[in-house]
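Field log, afternoon session.

UNIT: design team B
ACTIVITY: writing a sequence onto a fixed backbone
BACKBONE:
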């Protein structure tokens, strides 16, 4: 079960970025934060949302070439608070983007650097976000990277 409590996402993202920073630096990838300072709080399980963010950043790092950038942004959208993780890797084809949140689905292995995963990471991300009443989606222009977004409801909008 989720351990829900009022959560401010920006400090969590700053903490995760500090932790994973050395990994990005070792790969010569710049980690960039663009956080909305007026971001409302959400009702969330801090550890589980941390797992979502870590998973998305790890994926972005895996697909971003050395010298690239992974950008994490926050903002308010119509249905809540949105966190986005953008890379400037090879991107994802339209055929693949419709399947990447399926369990065990693995995208083209030629695009990844290093060891491939189990194909469970994005399915777990989707499951955790949806358990919080949120939504997850991805968009990509092949050759220009991919952006993964997840939204969580703002505390005041939860009935």
């Amino acid at each position: 079960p989720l351990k829900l409590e009022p959560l401010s996402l920006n400090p969590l993202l700053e903490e995760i970025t500090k932790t994973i920073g050395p990994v990005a630096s070792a790969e010569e990838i710049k980690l960039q934060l663009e956080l909305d300072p007026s971001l409302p709080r959400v009702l969330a399980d801090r550890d589980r949302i941390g797992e979502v963010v870590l998973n998305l950043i790890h994926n972005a790092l895996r697909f971003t070439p050395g010298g690239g950038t992974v950008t994490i942004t926050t903002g308010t959208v119509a249905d809540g608070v949105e966190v986005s993780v953008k890379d400037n890797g090879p991107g994802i084809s339209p055929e693949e983007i419709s399947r990447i949140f399926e369990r065990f689905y693995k995208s083209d292995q030629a695009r990844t650097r290093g060891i491939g995963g189990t194909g469970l990471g994005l399915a777990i991300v989707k499951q955790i976000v949806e358990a919080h009443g949120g939504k997850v989606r991805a968009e990509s222009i092949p050759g220009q990277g991919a952006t993964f977004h997840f939204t969580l409801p703002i505390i005041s909008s939860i009935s």
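LOG NOTE: Helices lie at 9-26, 46-63, 94-97, 121-131.
NEXT ACTIVITY: expression trials, pending approval
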